[in-house]
Amino acid sequence: MDAPEEDLDIKLQKISGDLINEFDASLIPFLRIINSKTQTSSGNATTTVRSRVRSRDSNRLASLLDPFQELPQLLDPHLAKWISALGEAYLDYLLLPTSSRNKKFQSTARITEGLLMPLPQAIAKLIYTLCKIRGEKVVVRFLSNEVRWLELLLSALEGAEGASTTSTAIKWTWEERYIVLLWLSHLMLAPFDLATISSRNSAQEESVDDDDATTKQKKDVTQGLEWLTNTPNIPGITVRILPLAIKYLASPGKERDAAKALLVRIAMRKDMQELGVLDSLVSWALDALRPEPPSETKERTPYHYIGVLSFLAGILRSSADTSDMDRYLTKTFYAVHSAATSPNPETGAMGSALARKTMIKVIRSITVLVLRNQNNMEDMELVETTIGFLLESLSDNDTPVRFAASKALSIITLKLDSDMASQVVEAVLVSLNRNVLHGEGKKDRSAVDPVEWHGLMLTLSHLLYRRSPPAEQLADIVSALVMGLSFERRSLSGGSSGTNVRDAACFGIWALARRYTTAELVAVPTAALTTGVHKPGSSVLQITATELVAAACLDTAGNIRRGSSAALQELIGRHPDCVTKGIWVVQTVDYHAVALRSRALQEVALGVTKLSSVYGEAILEALLGWRGIGDVEAASRRAAGASYGTITAELAGTEAEPVKRLTQSVALILERIRGLQMRQVEERHGLLVSFAAVLDGLPGVLEGQQADYSNDILRQLVKLSIDALLEILEDCKTRTYRKPELIAEATSRLIISSAPILQAATSILSDGPDNSPSTLIPGPSLITENAGEITQLVLALGPKPAPLKRFVALARSNLQNWLTRQEPELITTASQAALVMLIFSDTAEREEIIREWASIVRTRPTSARAAATVGGGHFAALAMSYSILSTLDLAQEDRMLICDAITERWRTDDNMETRVAILQSLTKSDLLKHNTEVFMGLVAEGLDDYTTTARGDVGSHVRLQAIRATKALWEGAGFDAQDSTRLVQGLFLRILRLAAEKLDRVRVEAQAALALVLRDEPAASLLRLTFSSKPYFTFLLALLTSPGLLLPSISAPLTSSPESWMDSLLAGYVSSADTGNEDLVIATRAALCEFCETSPENTDAICSALARNLKTYQGVDRVLVPTLEIVGFLFRVGIFQEAGARKVVGYKGLCLQVQKAAYKSGNVRKIEACVRVYGGILSSASSTGQQGKEDGQGEVDEGEGIREAKTRLSALMFHPWPRVKSCVVDELWGLYQDERLKGVDWGRAGKGDIQRVVEGVGLV
Fold first, then answer.
1. pLDDT for 8
2. Which SUPFAM superfamilies does the record cross-reference, listed alphabetically (predicted)?
3. How many distinct helices (H) and strands (E) make up the chain?
4. Backbone phi, then psi, for 340, in 5-degree steps?
């Protein structure tokens, strides 16, 4: 898992000023109507609050705020102004007469159908957006706290409750209810008694005006609060607020949070406590937690329990510094604990994770209050019961519950005495060691529960964060954290369930470094930790830092790599001079550097290894585990294998006998391979790739010096590697694995990397004279060598010993199967392995193999089954073998053996997969550059492949590979005057066309190819442009008029035929301008219009090229239909008429080509495009007629082209397809606005009706 290259917070900081300014400028006009004609006493224009606003404007303002969730503090300077304006507008709206508010909105609501919304809804939506970004506690502070608004807001909420039963009134949204309840809770902080604020002084007065429905609703909601109606001194506001708050306390939405805050505020008021409100509410809440009685008609939902529990948690939290709740603690605890341990959790509060989390908060608050005043055994039993319950909750299946339990346990432990706190820590450590099996010096954690481990690891982390454990227990805690840092469990489907455990371990190590002193940590014994790569005597800080480095470089999850980097920075920063190369390690294992896993695996891991071998050894050990060769992704295993090889070579370079280190690594890998089961395909793949990477490092370890083949260690390495290679090849030949393509790919990589070993083996394993080259060449470098150097190596090898002959035989046998597979990774590696096999084979066998491949490539399979057995590997291998062709004793006519085979197959086989494989093989070898004349036509044909099947445009795959082949030809070509025509002229116009076509993947590849024939500066400018942007298409259109952008040697031949240039460009351009995605159509059409408006010459060039393409591509609907559409578009914007007026394009010829296009066509879209072109010609009649009168040639301009367009439109009015008729009518209406065209179903109209209309509008 890789993190994005650029963080969103950086982008947000760049654009935050624009977003804030736009919101600030739009807010007041959105809320109020500004009356510029009248002014206030201060000289400002008066404003009137709006009653309704556009939904679109409300959504736009909310979208301006949403990005600030990444950096909410950027809004702090503006919150006071914005929230005050929103609150004042809301209150002003509520002060409007109710009848006028409803009438104003309802008069247009049915018409707009959601396009408008009441102003309070929009305000509530914006305030909620701010609460979502900045938090409700911050936002609510800026709302007005004047108590005069209390009854106004309460009355509005009550009115909305009554309106919910009627169909005509405006319904409140949940955002409105949430904001008003939150505002009311803020007003409950008023320092005055509610009795002095209420307009009605008692519950009896309050109930006088209630109708029967309202009275029944209040009774249902306030069941258990009968004292509200029986107590005469309860203020009216309390009586009105409590039913509403209790109702929304059971809401599934955000209203529950606001209702809870309101209920807690009113219960904790001193005047309400004196009246018994707190006592009654607590009693009601405890009664509501009991299982519902059978007589209760309304079923209690989980949200009912969540609301009641959140109210209790809020009450307890508010009374943390008081004794208001002390008399209810025991009763509340056992009520909540009884609900938590209910035998039927699904039917009660325990059925919801949020309810269980809230229960833990309630129990935590009670226990903390009890510990504050602990004075009897009953309190101690309560504490012990709590600890036991929390330890059980650590294994809950829901993560929020485990988070709450671990945090609660750490807070409670902090309040305990030292002995009891140590017992809690010990209980957590014992639970961590449960089901952990010990054997062979390692701990087997396959039997542990990953869910429980997450809870336990999180508890340890919270305990460390609060510095609860004593320093004497740190040794076991650190051991547990280090274990958690490398914890991983995978499900049967391959999913990871250990990420949260490792995340908790990172948090724990960060807290450990932050809360404990250097002296305390240095004194921690490390006897249990100094195993494996950790040397005896290492401090706990060094061991922890080493493990963090390994996790930061190798972990599969991006947040763990970054978390490990952050913990490492905290550890080294707070405890300086305790970690080897500490400052340099922090700079290397940077928070941003480890975001991309491929970079962390290779660059960061190698960089930190260069600082100290301690880190390299730890990384090597981890690479042989699940974080490296056992990764589920093949790409990650390849990167891990490459990292294993480079780190091994780096560590070998620091030792006196570097080859010995390589030998030890090879032996270790072979031991692991032999210990694998047959089903462990992924691990085998990773180990084989690691083996190959180690062998790649051999030439570098020898530092380019002459190899001493008499060295016993080198001879041991060569013999060990050759034996292992033969054993692996034999295993691949005789066994079939679950994923054979992975084993084949890894073994092919091993064959390639074995090249230096095979070079050395020709001397070490030979009984004759030493013919091996003195300097070993790495396998990957050998593949990229030119033909001359490969030939020199082949000639220098001499006779092959028996093991090499066996290697060639086994490799040939395996490659016969591998080259038939279709996987791209395997095709590349297998073809390169085939070249290595050819290098080390005898001359006769080499010729036999090449002829065999040429025969396979030349012959087209006669059946589908046979075609499936011939993959792209044979094409790639044959093309790669061209570099070794000069070593064969071939006749002159056989020199073209490879070229003839490939061209013959291209000529006889038009299958898309075959052609793609051929072009890929040419691109990745020197065959194309050395035989340009032979393959130029083949590449050009590939650039023109537009084959379409039931799968779609399958020819795009061929075009894509042909573009890459063109790039391979042009890269490093030099483009001197002699070769410019041969290399460029036949392909350039095709590349130009593809650079403008609609498929993004084709266009971006052609963009890169086009840049190769430009000068340096314009090439860089082109590559910086987005391939779907307007500037990009403007660049393409202007390229012809700016020949100085091209390379000097090819500018003249390419610009010698401007018409061909523009024809080719527009043949691809029209597909983007017509059938591309919406943004692409907009960009291309805008660029086309802008280019035409630049000069009349540009307009003439575009219009004449489009007219020529109509003739050239007759019958090719792929180009013809988009060209017709763009001609019609240019008529609609008035550009094509200009070319017609200058006689650049003749309307008569244009009509003739359009008529040919539509003749007997079954393509409705093409006929509609023709109709639009005819309409465009007719639309130019008035302007051209006027110009003709001035020039004395009006009769000519009005002539045959206009009459032909009218004739064709009149004929199409009689077309049998209704859709065509409708299109013609639409075009005629745009031309004539004749009322006779309206009110008729033209799909069913008779010929007489059509004839009358045709004659009436003047078409005949």
1. 58
2. ARM repeat (SSF48371)
3. 69, 6
4. -70, -30
Helical H segments across 50-118, by residue range: 55-65, 76-95, 98-112
Determine the Cα–Cα distance for residues 448 and 455; give it in Å rounded to an integer.
12
- Separation between Cα atoms, residue 938 and residue 907, nearest integer Å: 9
- Radius of gyration of the chain from its Cα atoms, rounded to whole angstroms: 41
The helix/strand/coil state of 925 is: coil
Checking 75-82 for CB contacts under 8 A at 24+ apart, the result is: 75/20, 75/130, 75/133, 75/134, 76/134, 78/20, 78/24, 79/130, 79/134, 79/138, 79/139, 79/142, 80/142, 81/24, 82/23, 82/24, 82/27, 82/130
Residues paired with 396 in a beta bridge: none
Q: Is 54 helix (H, G, I), strand (E, B) or coil?
A: strand
Structure tokens at 1138: 């200009």
| Residues with pLDDT less than 50, the chain | 1, 3-6, 107-112, 202-210, 213-214, 297, 346-347, 1184-1198
Which residue, chain included where needed, has tokens 């450990």? Answer: 512
What's the number of CA atoms in the CB half-sphere (13 Å) around residue 907? 10
Residue 44 phi/psi, 5-degree rounding, is: -85, 155
- DSSP tag of 74: G
In this predicted model, what pLDDT tens digit does every residue of 137-147 receive, in sequence order?
A: 999 999 998 88
What single letter denotes the amino acid at residue 228?
A: L
Q: Which of 620, 583, 595, 626 is nearest to 605 (CA)?
A: 620
- Specify whether the CB–CB gap between 272 and 324 falls below 8 A: no
The phi and psi torsions of 52 (rounded to 5 degrees) equal -150, 155
3-class SS string, 128-165: HHHHHHHCHHHHHHHCCCCHHHHHHHHHHHHHHHHHCC
Q: Rounded CA gap, 185 and 843, in Å?
A: 92
Angle (nearest 5°) at CA 360 between 330 and 410:
100
Q: What is the signed CA dihedral for 825, 830, 832, 836, rounded to 10 degrees?
A: 150
What is the distance between the alpha carbons of residues 338 and 1206, in angstroms, rounded to a whole number? 89
